Each structure stands twice: as C-alpha cells, then as structure tokens.
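Final report, section 2: Outcomes. Of the targets proposed, L-rhamnose mutarotase is the one most frequently requested by collaborating groups, and we therefore present its record in full.
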Amino acid sequence: MTRVCFQLQVAPELLDEYIARHTPVWPEMLAEIAAAGRRNYSLFLGEGGRLIGYYETDDDAAAQAYLAASPVAARWEAEMSRFFVGLDGRPDQAATPLTEIFHLDDQLAAAAARAPHEESTPS
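The predicted structure is given below as tokens.
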C-alpha cells in the first residue's frame, strides 16, 4: 500500500464555493475515485486556502491513469481547475506531492523488529 499526500492552493476568494462543491461531491465522482483504487481519501483546508489531500492506494500510477481516462473525472476536474492558484493542468494530475518523513505504524514495526528478543530461562 502507498500513502499519498499532496498540496494545492485554493484561491482565497473562492474558498466558500470550493467547500460547497465538496459537500457533497458528485456520487459518480465518488464512485470513480473508489474504482480507481483510492481509499481513505481526505482533504484538509488550511488558512489562506492551503489544501492538503491524503489517500491510500495499492498502485498510484494505475489510479492516476484510471482517473485520467475517466470522462466523469475529466468533467469534475474541468470544473474544479478554476479554484486553484498556480496549477498547470488538471488538479488530480498536477498536484504537488509531499514527501512522507514519518509514519507511526512503520516506525513501531521497525522498532519491534530491532528490539532484542527476550529469552526465557529455565527455572
């Protein structure tokens, strides 16, 4: 599984409309996101229109390709593109990916693997 986090900038003057467009998202677009193999998908909006997105997928390249070929996603992204500042291309294809530097479960698993195994001593 791959965890993907990305950043976009929503034009501050369009924030209210952007939020309204996501409450709710078109049912057919939700279905396409799921069919592409993206799950646990969230968007977080910060001060000034800073948008952070996160999702998990087994094959991000395949998910990207699926959505790039989807007429539903093309319609959605065409309508959404006007909300973003400094973006060249479709938002779902041109968002700036962020580099993951920490994940709790991964580090706990690595720490457990490094921990010395306690040996039981016979009484």
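The chain is about 40% helix and 20% strand.
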